Amino acid sequence: MPVLVLFLFGGLSGVTTVLFGFGGGFVTVPVVAAVTRSGDAMHIAVATSTAVMVVNSAIATVVQAHAGRLRREYLWPLAAFIAVGAVAGSVAAAETGDGTLRVLFVAYLGVTIVDSMLRGGFLRPQGDLRPLGPLTTTVGGVGIGAVASFLGVGGSVLTVPLLRRKGLAMAEATAMANPLSLPVAVIGTAVYASAGSGPVGYLDPLAGAALLAGSLPTIALVRQVADRLPDQVHAIAYVLLLAVALLAVAIGS
Prior knowledge:
253 residues
């Protein structure tokens, strides 16, 4: 039954990877934590999420590049600074207690949801496209990498609101969350694989395989849908999905 549940939620993670740039993080972390019978459930969930994210985000990046939705000026050098922060965040997560990790996951989602709803520029883009400033690219990039790798959620929860408030449409902002999540996923997976007591650290290979079995076919099927969603509907759906993930982890605790 857990394998079937993981397979089905893997399909959902494929949908969220294409439509929201999540790479699976906000879907995979709650479900893996829920089905794992271990005192390190959140660590295993975060670690497995990053491993799944490597594959999902890489494939989605290729798909989005072919669709012409990626803008190089918003990807580089931001991705390099995200990678720097990802090292610190994943090392810190491996040393943080499971209960603390769960509380911080819920708290960060709550802050993000409230900020997206109350602060202007997310539900509706404001004005023309604006470039990323040096401070946002450097300090902001390191912060994005640290928080995203610590929580196992990729960079989407931080990069999508950031790019959205620079005037990008949701289809573009979520598309670029995939390549910006790759540094977090690769570095986080390497760190978590060397931590913990399992043969591959905190990673759960069976859970990861089940999730990928569901996500990869879904990514291929859903790739055309992003262009058809009205922009504001896309933004509202993003916030609603964060709320579902928050409730799933909070209830599971």
